[in-house]
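All the exercises in this workshop are built on plain-text protein records. There is nothing in a record beyond a sequence line and a structure line. A learned vocabulary of local backbone shapes supplies the integers on the structure line. The question running through the whole workshop is how a given chain folds. Here is such a record, shown just as it appears in the course material:

***
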Amino acid sequence: MTTFDTLKNLNHPCIQRSAGELLLTLAKNAESRFEKVPEIMGVICAQLSIISQPRVRQQIINTVSLFISRPKYTDTVLSFLLCHPVPYNRHLAEVWRMLAVELPSTTWILWRLLKKLQKCHNEPAQEKMAYVAVAATDALYEVFLGNRLRAATFRLFPQLLMTLLIQIHHSIGLTMSDVDIPSGLYTEQEVSSEVTPLCFAMQATKALLLRTCCLQEFNIMEKNKGWALLGGKDCHLQGVFLLANALLERNRFLAQKVMYLLVPFLNRGNDKHKLTSAGFFVELLRSPVAKRLPSIYSVARFKDWLQDGNHLFRILGLRGLYNLVGHQEMREDIKSLLPYIVDSLRETEKKIVLSAIQILLQLVRTMDFTTLAAMMRTLFSLFGDVRPDVHRFSMTLFGAAIKSVKNPDKKSVEKQVLDSLVPLLLYSQDENDAVAEESRRVITICAQFLKWKLPQEVYSKDPWHIKPTEAGTICRFFEKKCKGKINILEQTLMYSKNPKLPIRRSAVLFVGLLSKYMDHNELRRMGTDRIEDDLRDLLCDPEPSLCIVTSQTLLLVQMARAEPKPKQRVNWLQKLMGRSSA
């Protein structure tokens, strides 16, 4: 302690230098006698702020380095250094940055610091974040900046990266008031409102990438707003996906090391720990190395996730399967999960449905007929879904399923194909161009299945209500082809209540056309009361174009009901629309 007191002698720099050298010599030669390391560290940290000579400061830091490099004292020194206010003042920051440790000890020190942070993640969720988690994160940041433990940083990169990403997830939305700060720690200063657990975790993660030469990965994150995504409450996983893909694209060796680390990592910690780990893991499965993983670590795990109560795990399970299905060797194992994937089509979460569709598109040609037929029934229920992407891709998969039906099974699905014709026809009039185009494409597939040659008018992009002649041609074709197979009029009438104006208007117009071209005796047998009632309800619609088309259709239905046979009329609908050439 006399030596420490001598360090305070600011008037005699030579004495101060001698004291520094003596302290370092004592630490080297009598380390077993230092039983009060915390007290010694306390004195060192207190004296550091009044020592201005660079050589003496380095001797003090070397003494700390000597203590921390001895396994006997590592945890003790770390615990003491972590019990200081964050962000660390410039003197403590210098200690972290300037640690002078021999190479064999660098990994040990960084590992022990990392374990203190990981321990916080593995414990049950607490009301407040442990202060040591924030302090250890800031310490890692300072260590990375100093770059004195560079070899260890490279060696422990997978563990460091994942632990910091998990710390980011735990820190989202927190302020320092949400941290369990030890009593009396901030006696001399208030915590700035700009200081948050998240900013420390972000700084450390960025510094880690830069110090391990992941410059391209850093740039990708910066250009694609990846840091903002990582720190967002609802978009954290998107940031994780972006970073994982960047690493896989730019540094496959490091990415593979991370992937192997994540196999046991996925079983630890709370949901935030598992979600961040799982998000990184599923993206890395695009790597060719992924097919070497035993299925128990991938496909079997995804089966559990698909049944998890947390929808995020179900999303990750499907995302992982999609990345795995790119490896031909894995497809047979994935096929065992087809019932779970098909069930995912009924989910309310858009991402889950779309992910399931993307996987099924890859597997549709290998499905057995029972699974294929069940899937087609579910897809049919998604026609007209309010989510345009779900609507469009459900039709895409439905078309792919029709193409995949083998000859012996075609008769069994013919009814499903016929039932899909009216919805596909009507949705070819959708206001969403992508949905309309896909409807026309899939109805072509249906026609090929049924061995029909569609009239060219089906492929027109013009709305039916401005091209009634084309609509009449389409109606005559389908009324003739579907006669005796499905009740096309009844099916069309259902769509007169569709929430989308173009679909309602097209359905009403088509009802009028069907009333003209179908057998009137059959129409009377079916009864027109319900049709007329439904149409009258639409006469009060605020959209003028729908009211006009409805009034014209209602007249056509009433005329068809009254007449024994349909009379031939020239340009009948043009006259009703006020477009006669007279």
Observations:
- Confidence is low (pLDDT under 50) at residues 566-570.
- Residues 103-122 form the longest helix (20 residues).
- DSSP finds 32 helices and two strands in the chain.
- The CA atoms of residues 173 and 394 lie 37 Å apart.
